[in-house]
Amino acid sequence: MYIAGQEEIDALARVIRSGALFRYGIGRECETFEARYAKYLGVKHFALSASGSNALAAAMAAVGLGPGDEVLIPAHTYMATATSVLAVGAIPVIVDIDESITIDPKAVEAAIGPRTRGVVPVHMWGAACHMDRIMDIAKRRNLIVIEDACQGVGGAYHGRKFGSIGHIGAFSFNYYKNMTSGEGGGVAVNDDNLAKRARCAIDPCHFYWNGREDEKPFAGNGARASELMGAMLNVQLDRLDGMVAAMRAERQAILRGTASLSNLGLRPAPAHSPDDDCATQVMYTLPSAELAAGFVKVFPSVIAGKTGRHNYTEWDQILSGEGAAHTAMNPYTMPANAACRRSYSKDMCSASLEILNRTIMVATHPQHGDDQIQDMIHNIGVAARVALGGQPLDGMDLRKAQPVDKQKFDMKEDA
Ligand SMILES: Cc1ncc(COP(=O)(O)O)c(C=O)c1O
Q1: Nearest ligand 1 atom to alpha carbon 122
Q2: Ligand 1 atom at minimal distance to the Cα of residue 54
Q3: 358 vs 8, 285, 293, 363, CA distance in Å?
Q4: Cα separation of 412 and 415, whole Å?
Q5: Contact (CB, 8 A) for 65 and 295
Q6: For position 214, what pLDDT does the model report?
Q7: Is 185's C-beta closer than 6 angstroms to any atom of ligand 1?
Q8: pLDDT category of residue 402 using cuts at 50, 70 and 90
Q9: What is the spatial distance between Cα 5 and Cα 8, in angstroms, rounded to a whole number?
């Protein structure tokens, strides 16, 4: 959560006092948010759900993926990207990322096999995937693009909002996201039929609640959003652009203030849409994992390769082929998936691990003040001179720094 205050408290209190806690027939908050956010994204439909994981699974169901299909996903993403593919009976195939720490279009093209039907670009840590290249590959090779914009709320790729570029997009509004209602998510889509299917996956009784009994594509499972969620998101949406603008300004200031350190090896990570992405992190690509480890010892920051659940090596159930609660529903053992690539190993994307272990992330925040930003620039300079330039730490003036949120980044070990 970045910012939540009196406006959110007032909105939630209003809904509780009114007793209108259910979205259909009683409340208006979810419906209002869906219309506003669809307009914000520039898509025809937005359907709220209980979580980003539900939204991704609903998107997979909406586009008709299922047993017999492979879906390409990046080696660096939250595990829900993989589990949403399994949720519809399809098989996630893990492919490399590049130095942008998003899915590598070259790896996508190389990984396409006879069963591949979809690809999931994930705008990881708010950084843009190379959407032009992904969409070009998808068009040429007949793939469905399910855009995972769960970490990309408020960001865009060259003017087009994340989640609006692929055939369908999914968002998360959990506690850590740029806009939050504690938990929550939703599906963005232009196609009317896909929207209908996504809504059905989120709530199979949606059509009954709305009094239209003719529209029942299939029996989805429920993941309906509450009016409390809608109320909070309506307030959060008003804050979003200002927050993202502040984070972009902070990142620009930090990159400007640390530009001269590139001769020591502190290079900004390549970005596909630096003016439009979320700028929730300042990312640097260092020459080696050893230098990155030395850097974070001096300046508390995050090594992308040390963010636990965000790397495929930590997805235990996926790696061991435990794809469902019931054996008969396990996509890894379903006869329909016999021709899909179903085995993984911890070193299958070693090129990604090598990049991730030398990628440093410094978190921005919309409420960082100028002095704090100057202190960060100063400390990054100290860390670069010590860890990369070989200068002694003794006598260096390190300023007070914010601790890293270890739970957010799943840092189980000190890097
Ligand atoms: C890239 C990505 N995809 C999917 C999800 C799943 O969202 P949720 O936690 O709302 O289920 C997350 C959440 O952290 C995420 O970061």
Answers
A1: 1
A2: 11
A3: 39, 6, 8, 16
A4: 9
A5: no
A6: 64
A7: yes
A8: confident
A9: 6
